[in-house]
C-alpha cells in the first residue's frame, strides 16, 4: 500500500567525503525514492566503526568519491519500494552491511552468511541496478557497504535491513548492526568456545571486548587481552578479561607469555586488530593439536597472511569470520532480544554521544584511539 503512493525524492543533509582522508562536508543531497525491493530509512542513530575510518582514509578506490560512509545504524522506515511486503512505514530497523536474500545457495544452506545476491558491496552502488540513490546537483554520490548512514535519510535493499523491537533504544542497539555482533558471533558461532577453555584476544576495541564478553558468557576460565593501550586493562575487566598483556612492556614475544600463562597455548585465539602480521602472532599463541585462531579484523595494509606451515601441520586451525557468522535476518533479532533481556552488554561500549554536526570530531577520536564507539544522534 505504501508503495502505491509513489514516494518522491527527498533533500536532506549528509556528511559527504569528497576525497580520501579529507574532512567530511555537510551537504544538501537528494535521496531518490526506493526502487523495487528497497526501503528508504530515516536514520536515527549511527555509530562509527573502524572500517568506516579505514575506508575513508584509503586511496585504493579514488574514483568512488564523493561518497557517504557509515553502516552501523538504526532508523525508521520512511517509504518502501515495489514488492516490499516485509516492512511498513514506521518500522524500526537495523541496517546491515551484508544481506540475506533467503534464496541463494549460501542462504538456504544454513551454514553460511555469505549471501550471493546481497554480499559485501564494494563498488559504491546499490546491489539491484549498480546505480546510486544519492546525488548533489545531479551528480552521483557513492554509497558505502550499501548502507551510507552518515545521512539523514538513506536507501537500502530490504534484504539489508532487519526489523527490530520498537521498545529498544535506537542509540545503543545500532552497535549490533556490526561491531558487537561480529565479536559475539566469532566467540559463539565461529569458534564455539567451550566452558573452562583459555582464550587470547588481540585488540580490545569494540569487537575484541565483545569477543571477551562472549567468551565469559560461555564460561571460559582464562581470557587474556592483548593491547598496546594500557587504558584497555580496566575496560577489559568489565567485559571478562582476566589477564592483560601490553606488548610494548614485554622483553619477550607475546606468544611466549601466552604459552606460559596457558600451559602451552590458548585453546582459542582471536585477531581483532586488522593487521595480518598479528594473525601470525595469534596463530603462534594457540595450542598445538587443537588451537583455533579466528581472524576478524579488516587489514588496512598488506592483505596477505603469512605463517610457517609447521603451525598448521601441528594441528592448529585458522578461520576467518565476517559479521560473526550471523545471518542478518535469521539471527539478529535473537541478539536484540538478548540485549532487551539484559543478557549482553552493549551500553558500556559507547564512550561518546555526539550530534551529527560533530561527526568530524568523532572520526578524529577514532583515529586517535580515544574512543570505543561514538554514537551520532541524527536530527529528529
Automatic annotation (TrEMBL):
<dbReference type="Pfam" id="PF00107">
    <property type="entry name" value="ADH_zinc_N"/>
</dbReference>
<keyword id="KW-0520">NAD</keyword>
<dbReference type="GO" id="GO:0008270">
    <property type="term" value="F:zinc ion binding"/>
</dbReference>
<dbReference type="InterPro" id="IPR013154">
    <property type="entry name" value="ADH-like_N"/>
</dbReference>
<protein>
    <recommendedName>
        <fullName>Alcohol dehydrogenase-like 6</fullName>
    </recommendedName>
</protein>
<dbReference type="GO" id="GO:0004022">
    <property type="term" value="F:alcohol dehydrogenase (NAD+) activity"/>
</dbReference>
<feature type="domain" description="Alcohol dehydrogenase-like N-terminal">
    <location>
        <begin position="37"/>
        <end position="164"/>
    </location>
</feature>
<dbReference type="InterPro" id="IPR013149">
    <property type="entry name" value="ADH-like_C"/>
</dbReference>
<dbReference type="GO" id="GO:0005829">
    <property type="term" value="C:cytosol"/>
</dbReference>
<keyword id="KW-0862">Zinc</keyword>
<keyword id="KW-0479">Metal-binding</keyword>
<dbReference type="GO" id="GO:0051903">
    <property type="term" value="F:S-(hydroxymethyl)glutathione dehydrogenase [NAD(P)+] activity"/>
</dbReference>
<dbReference type="GO" id="GO:0046294">
    <property type="term" value="P:formaldehyde catabolic process"/>
</dbReference>
<feature type="domain" description="Alcohol dehydrogenase-like C-terminal">
    <location>
        <begin position="207"/>
        <end position="337"/>
    </location>
</feature>
<keyword id="KW-0560">Oxidoreductase</keyword>
<dbReference type="Pfam" id="PF08240">
    <property type="entry name" value="ADH_N"/>
</dbReference>
<dbReference type="InterPro" id="IPR002328">
    <property type="entry name" value="ADH_Zn_CS"/>
</dbReference>
<comment type="similarity">
    <text>Belongs to the zinc-containing alcohol dehydrogenase family. Class-III subfamily.</text>
</comment>
<comment type="subunit">
    <text>Homodimer.</text>
</comment>
